[in-house]
Amino acid sequence: MKYMVGQKMKKIDLTKGNVLKVILSLATPLVVTSLLQFAYNFVNMIWVGGLGSGAVASIGASSIYIGLGYSVNAMVVIGGSVKVAHALGKKDEEEVNKYINTSFILNFTLGIIFGSIILIYGKSLIGFLGINDLKVNKSALSYLLINGSTMVIVFFNTFYTRIFSSFGNNKISLKISGIGLILNIILDPIFIYTFKLGVNGAAIATVISNIVVFIMSVYFSKDFYTVNFKKYFDIIALKEIMRLGIPNSMQRIIFTLINIALAKIISKFGADAIAAQKIGLQIESITFTIIGGFNGAAASFVGQNFGAKRLDRINSGYKISLILGTIYTLFITIAFIAIPERLAAIFVRDIITIKITADYLRIIGISQILAAVEMITNGAFTGLGSTKYSAIISVSLTVIRVPLALVLIDYFEVNGVWWSIAISSMLKGIVAFSVYRFILWKKVVRRIKYS
């Protein structure tokens, strides 16, 4: 790849200008993109919910393994984007090319491997969850296999989005994602109801949209670089990407494996409980939709300013992101606690599923602010190239969910699982902030001052 300069170079310098305005300019396109994703998931869940709780449970079961793919993909997405942001901050064009190229090849390899695993072992993966409903199992397997067939494309869609963000140019991602999501919203009812394909129809609509997003991403990426793997692929760069990416990736993989273990526990309470968790997560994503934007903004902003050795801007960017995220999440917390039944009823009409979902939202609601603190702080960890902190905190405190759930279900039944999630989320937020404030920041100051 050859890094393009002049008119074709779309890099935005994040080391200058008003910090609040820069953070908002970075976060806004990410937030809007996430809102579009939320809108799609919202509409998609309504369409699928019309098929019944069983259909929702099917997608919920298979989505766990698709989420595992995103966790594997994080190795490249995080490691590569951090190194690209640092190189941009130093204005080192050669390094930018080197890290993008090397990330590209690693991403392709991981996508092929993971997609193959899904296609070969899909039946065993669904069977492991122990869902005692043959129809749900069958639908979950077909949904998983259809999506697994294009997993490498999904890997690249995420990769391109983060690379665009490293350049400080999130508007391109917004345009691409917007078109893809609108297409998905249009195709869903056509394939689900008009063609009468049910859950499979939802999967096919998603695959088509992902392909379109991939084609657009490749097209727009030409404004940033051209392909030249022989010149810029670098083994040392590969090791650096993996060094930074593996902790975050392992964090997410373990997080997903914990979710699989929790799903197995939840399955004991029937398909209604599985559907309730899927709907609850869908509603809860309105938190992560916005906070994810601040996470990405913090990572890119801190990354470039760390490369430029701008201590003042690093700290200001983190604090502003944290304040904005906390204010937003407060309103979400109030909604989850005050009107959970109304939110659940949007997606499904089954009374039992609505009740379980409402309980989920009330319990999870109390942890939303601290969960947001953890996400934004993880963005700062990423920008500083210190992903090991977020990995250690997340892994150690997420692991306790399983034993805690096993204890609490004896007293609160399925609500015990929700309490285990809420308690661990609050602990992660407290610990992440404390580590950044009292440990990592002091190391960063010393490193920059004496470098």
Automatic annotation (TrEMBL):
Places the protein is found: Cell membrane
Main location as per UniProt: membrane
A Gene Ontology molecular function term of the record: antiporter activity
Keyword line: Antiport, Cell membrane, Ion transport, Membrane, Transmembrane, Transmembrane helix, Transport
Domain of life of the organism encoding this protein: Bacteria
Transmembrane stretches, start-end: 20-43, 55-78, 99-121, 141-160, 172-195, 201-221, 320-340, 360-377, 389-412, 418-439
Function field: Multidrug efflux pump.
The name this protein goes by in its record: Probable multidrug resistance protein NorM
Organism annotation: Clostridium cylindrosporum DSM 605
